[in-house]
């Protein structure tokens, strides 16, 4: 299930960037958001953070939020 979602997001983000030229801020933000959804899914399912101790789930979630916010800020500036 997760692998199918990851592949679908990959194809969709490629299509958005390739077919539309990828020169829109909205498209860039959408592709970034899809990338962070993919990271969250990989952390949760393939790195098995879902069944890890609560503190590790919180640390990885916090890390992802910080990296996402930093990436969006840098993208917009």
Helical coverage, percent range: over 70%
Helix and strand pattern: HHH
Query: Tell me, what's the shape?
Result: flat
The helix-and-strand class reads: mainly alpha
Sheet bearing the most strands, described? none
Verbal overview:
By secondary structure, this protein is mostly helical. It is 82% helix and 0% strand. The longest helix has 23 residues, at 54-76. It starts with a helix and ends with a helix. 1% of the residues are buried.
List keywords for this structure.
77 residues, mainly alpha, 82% helix
Short description:
With 77 residues, this protein is mainly alpha-helical.
Can you lay out the helices and strands and say which pair or pack?
Blueprint: H1 2-19, H2 25-46, H3 54-76
């Amino acid at each position: 299930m997760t692998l199918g979602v990851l592949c679908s997001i990959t194809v969709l983000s490629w299509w958005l960037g390739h077919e539309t030229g990828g020169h829109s801020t909205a498209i860039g933000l959408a592709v970034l958001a899809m990338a962070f959804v993919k990271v969250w899914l990989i952390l949760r399912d393939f790195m098995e953070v879902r069944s890890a101790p609560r503190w590790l789930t919180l640390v990885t979630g916090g890390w992802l939020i910080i990296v996402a916010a930093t990436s969006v800020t840098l993208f917009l500036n």
